[in-house]
Design goal:
The protein is α+β, with helices and mostly antiparallel strands. 32% of the residues lie in helices and 27% in strands. It folds into six domains: 73 residues, Winged helix-like DNA-binding domain superfamily/Winged helix DNA-binding domain (Arc Repressor Mutant, subunit A, Orthogonal Bundle); 64 residues, Beta Barrel (OB fold (Dihydrolipoamide Acetyltransferase, E2P)), CATH 2.40.50.140; 69 residues, OB fold (Dihydrolipoamide Acetyltransferase, E2P); 314 residues, no CATH class; 54 residues, no CATH class; 81 residues, OB fold (Dihydrolipoamide Acetyltransferase, E2P), CATH 2.40.50.140. The strands form ten sheets. Strands 3-4-5-7-6 form a five-stranded mixed beta barrel.
């Protein structure tokens, strides 16, 4: 018998109509003492069917939310010293347990106590010794396997083979019996499916299900990462079929239904290689001196209808993934590069936000409208930055018709940024890495990708638009999806303060509830200094990660009470959810049934979208690390200037001006015996008293590059 709301109401009465209420009651009973199943049922006060009740308990046990003792009693794991969470393994065999409860310290798990658990598995552990930061645990149960397929290099023996995982955190090779090799050759990249999980003294066993190509072939490296993270390269047939039926012209009745702004001067501005143009901008000066900013966002929700094939696939993907050499889009190209992209001189449907903004940067009025627009020009960041900085007379002449428009945009963006800075918004000025590849996929240049004034203009306009939408929808009182950023933990901020003390800086207000303004003041203080990138990076790591939530708890980093993601529905699924809610609200379609549906589903959708975003970030980092390693492979023996970006007991990390990072192993510091001073983030020579500390300038020589592990070794020049 399946468990659903109708069954719940039938067996439990109106008071208990869904599993959440049942589970809550079970937790209330077990918070006092472990109980037998019959005791839980009899004390619950519910007229319940024993079979359904048994299934609920079983499911909660499988998910690790309950544990059953040797005496067959049910208990909450934490009350018996058990914890559930994820395992983060290390290439050297041990791992760390990351609790489901945010803010808790990680717990060390030695190699002998992993008990067959692998990297990213969801596990239940028990504490075996220690407290605070020195706690150690043992895996007692694997709740959910994360690695059903492993990508790696096949090494063939006479009658069997092994797959050496690309992800070194999966430290055991996968044994492949002869009858499961399936044509794979020595030295080829493959995908292996696990058929027997590892045990204490036995490697995992698998079978080859896909051969990707020789490890040295062009494109095999990136394809291996795509498979490693199980990213969908192509859309399913049913999705492609649905996409091909979408007309690439707009029906006349839809044009008549909407506000028509095709005669309003409107531009898009993006990178030169962008093909999915989400947003367009209009800007007018009002007679009272205020700005009327229009942010026009591609109306994806008109084309992607809820629960259709395209929508289900977009939700599964959650986001577009931008790799060094390709994009894995959330939506088929007929939408992302076609009818939804706000291409110049083409009629497009948009969801528009008009904001009247005064000279202090305050939004004094706004309106949301379903519109039809026609972009007048597709501007490129690099060109417009040169125009506004007055560096290129030819470009200034080319864009003379837009010059006043662009200058007004710059003026408004500066006003908005000044207001944001005054309230304490943290503005990380971290340059992203730009990796240039040749036609074979080989990296030929790695450098910082500069953000010019044109990038900042669009950023400010998107920020104010997202804030305006979030605040308006908060006051509407309807269920909504927010982009939230929690306050950092006091412990992490204290650690960060110790770190910056090495450079002579100090956080104001440390020890109590810190305001983001204190962090912004520090960023202003280090601006333009050698240690700026390093301190900014460590600060970013000290903060919580932003995520999606159905509860509005504000955005610490932006010092904003209200924030959401409205401006990129071609490449982010949360924006699509938000557009649908707003349209339903504006059209008075949010009845009780729909509101209840949103209240039930939004928390789950928020978690899913946050997870997909984190996965995309990890994939992008891995492809960057790979190409950086490839770029440095032919530079062995060359010398570079760098800055010490990390100090550990096993060596010092050094970051170069081009953003490439490598390790000087402590064994390579052979002029003395160096001791790690954890408190001051430095290595100190016992005899010479020579010190290597965070932020020090250093000259290095490239000693070794290991492309499969994506690591680079330096030595002192």
């Amino acid at each position: 018998m399946s468990i659903n709301n109708k069954n719940m109401e039938k067996y439990y009465g109106k008071r208990y109509t869904d599993s959440k209420e049942i589970e809550q009651r079970i937790f209330e009973l077990l918070s006092r003492i472990p109980l037998y199943e019959e005791e839980i049922l009899s004390n619950s006060g519910m007229e319940a069917d024993p079979e359904i009740f048994h299934k609920i308990l079983n499911r909660m046990e499988e998910e690790g939310r309950l544990i059953r003792t040797k005496k067959k009693k049910y208990a909450i794991p934490e009350t018996l010293g058990f914890f559930t969470g994820r395992l983060q393994a290390n290439a050297r065999g041990f791992g760390f347990f990351i609790s489901d409860n945010e803010g808790e310290e990680d717990i060390f798990i030695s190699a002998e106590n992993l008990n067959g658990a692998m990297h990213r598995d969801r596990v239940m552990i028990r504490l075996i010794k220690g407290n605070g930061r020195s706690r150690e645990g043992e895996v007692v149960r694997v709740l959910e396997r994360a690695n059903t397929k492993i990508v790696g290099t096949f090494e063939k023996e006479k009658n069997f083979g092994f797959v050496i995982p690309d992800d070194q955190r999966i430290h055991q090779d996968i044994f492949i019996p002869k009858d499961a090799i399936n044509g794979a050759k020595h030295g080829y990249k493959v995908v292996a499916e696990i058929v027997h999980w590892p045990q204490k003294r036995r490697n995992p066993e698998g079978r080859i299900i896909e051969v990707l190509g020789h490890r040295d072939e062009v494109g095999t490296d990136i394809l291996s990462i795509i498979r490693q993270f199980d990213l969908p390269e192509v859309f399913p047939d049913e999705v492609q079929g649905e996409a091909k039926k979408i007309p690439q012209t707009i029906p006349e009745d839809e044009i008549k239904r909407r506000k028509d702004y095709r005669n309003l001067l409107t531009i898009t501005m993006d990178g030169a290689d962008a093909k999915d143009l989400d947003d367009a901008i209009s800007l007018e000066m009002k007679t009272n001196g205020n700005y009327l900013l229009g942010v026009h966002i591609a109306d994806v929700s008109y084309y992607v209808r809820e629960n259709k094939e395209i929508d289900r696939e977009a939700y599964r993907r959650g986001t577009s993934v931008y790799l060094v050499d390709r994009v894995i889009p959330m939506l088929p190209k007929e939408l992302s590069n076609g009818i939804c992209s706000l291409n110049p001189n083409e009629d497009r449907l948009a969801f528009s936000v008009f904001m009247e903004i005064n000279s202090k940067g305050t939004v004094v009025d706004y309106r949301f409208e379903e519109t039809i627009i026609r972009s007048d020009a597709r501007l490129v960041y690099e060109d417009i930055t040169k125009v506004l900085e007055g560096k290129d007379p030819e470009l200034i002449e080319e864009y003379r018709d837009f010059l006043e428009f662009l200058q007004n945009m710059e003026s408004l963006a500066n006003i908005l940024r000044d207001k944001r800075m005054k309230r304490g918004s943290i503005d990380f000025d971290l340059e992203e890495t730009k990796i240039t590849l040749d036609i074979t996929g080989k990296p030929i240049d790695v450098k910082q990708d500069e953000r010019g004034i044109s990038n900042r203009i669009i950023e400010e306009f998107m920020l104010v638009c997202n804030e305006t939408v979030a605040e308006a929808m908060t006051w509407s009182g309807v269920p909504f999806l927010y982009r939230v950023h929690e306050e950092p933990s006091v412990e992490k901020l204290l650690d960060f303060n110790k770190f910056i003390n090495n450079f002579g800086y100090h956080l104001k207000g440390i020890g109590g509830k810190i305001h983001p303004k204190a962090l912004q003041d520090l960023l202003e203080e280090i601006k333009g200094k050698r240690e700026e990138v390093l301190i900014s990076t460590v600060m970013l790591r000290s903060l919580q990660k932003a995520k999606y939530s159905s509860d509005n708890i504000g955005h610490f980093g932006l010092a904003a009470k209200y924030y959401t993601h409205f401006t990129a529905p071609i490449r982010r699924y949360p924006d699509l959810i938000i557009h649908r809610i707003m349209k339903d609200f504006l059209a008075n379609r949010l009845d009780k049934k729909r509101i209840q549906y949103l209240n039930d589903k939004l928390p789950e959708m928020a978690n899913h979208c946050s997870e997909r975003e984190r996965l995309a970030d990890e994939v992008e980092r891995e492809t960057d690390r790979l190409k950086k390693a490839e770029y440095m492979a032919d530079k062995i023996g060359m010398e570079f200037d760098g800055i010490i970006s990390g100090v550990t007991s096993f060596g010092v990390f050094v970051i170069l001006d081009n953003t490439v990072e490598g390790l000087i192993r402590i064994t390579a510091l052979d002029d003395d015996y160096y001791v790690y001073d954890e408190k001051h983030y430095c290595l100190i020579g016992e005899r010479t008293k020579k010190v290597y500390r965070l932020g020090d300038d250093i000259k290095i020589r490239v000693a070794n590059v290991d492309i499969p592990s994506r690591t680079i070794d330096f030595v002192l020049a």
